[in-house]
Amino acid sequence: MGNGRAARTRVLALNSSPRKEKGATDLVLRRFLEGAERAGVEVELVYLADRRIEDCRGCFHCWFVTPGKCRIRDDVEELLDMMREADVVVYATPLYTCSMNGIMKRFLDRMLPTVEPYQELDRDGVCRHPRRGERKPIMVLISVAGFPGLRNFDPLVLTMERLAEVGGLELAAKILFPASPALMSNPCPAERQLEAVERAGKELVEGGISTSTLEEMHEPYVEPEVYIEDMNRLFRDLCGRVEG
Ligand SMILES: Cc1cc2nc3c(=O)[nH]c(=O)nc-3n(C[C@H](O)[C@H](O)[C@H](O)COP(=O)(O)O)c2cc1C
């Protein structure tokens, strides 16, 4: 903690789970936002499933015809305006088919107007587009998955790391919770890890997340063999009920 960076005052959270407040994504995200709020910052939470977000048409209108502005009239323009005002943007997505879900991907594709068409190589040889505007919001990734084990998130993390690299942005934290049904059980076996998430929210807006907080939130909270056995028992029950 206390790495000397300026405090952040506005946090925008984008939750792409179609289950919205009933989902495990929201459960983790809310703990992070509660921590940030305790540090006295302004927090805004948007459920992307409630917004009209059409697919990018790949027309490059936003580069060559109306620079910085998409031709599609839906909710994305407002969302991009909100992002321009934010110091921190939290991308919260359930893991679907080994990556972010479709709603989040559809939104990320629509961020094309935020960059210019030109290509440039940075000092490390990374090719990127220059960003429009001065602001460089810090990125945070939050995700949950049904399978146990952090390995499930590898493709998603790689994608978000590359997105940050291309955008010249910092991906300050990857907050990953596997075995998501366990999060919903009472008592929750991951309470200590969720407390670390809350702390991470506070620490981030105050300057930076400590290594101990990052380590604590990723400590395992289920035994994979036991979890799988429990889940399969539940699934057999549910399947029996559906077939009967
Ligand atoms: C279409 C679909 C695909 C999924 N793919 C994966 C997957 O590849 N790996 C995994 O561990 N969980 C997968 N899951 C499980 C979800 O990550 C899990 O149910 C999570 O809790 C969903 O988040 P939510 O509760 O916020 O909606 C998938 C769920 C759905 C509906």
Structure write-up:
By secondary structure, the protein is α/β, with parallel strands linked by helices. The chain contains 9 helices and 7 strands; from the N terminus they run βαβααβαβββαβαααα. The chain has a single domain, classed as Flavodoxin domain (Rossmann fold), CATH 3.40.50. Strands 2-1-3-6-7 form a 5-stranded parallel β-sheet, with helices on both faces. It starts with 9 loop residues before the first strand and ends with a helix. The N terminus is likely disordered. Bound molecules: flavin mononucleotide. Flavin mononucleotide (FMN) binds next to helix 1.
Bound molecules: flavin mononucleotide
SSE ordering? EHEHHEHEEEHEHHHH
What is the percentage of strand-forming residues?
Answer: 15-25%
**Largest sheet, order of strands side by side?**
2-1-3-6-7
Distance between the termini: 56 Å
Give me the secondary-structure category: alpha/beta
CATH architectural group: 3-Layer(aba) Sandwich
The percentage helix is 40-55%
Tally of structural domains: 1
The major β-sheet equals: 5 strands, parallel
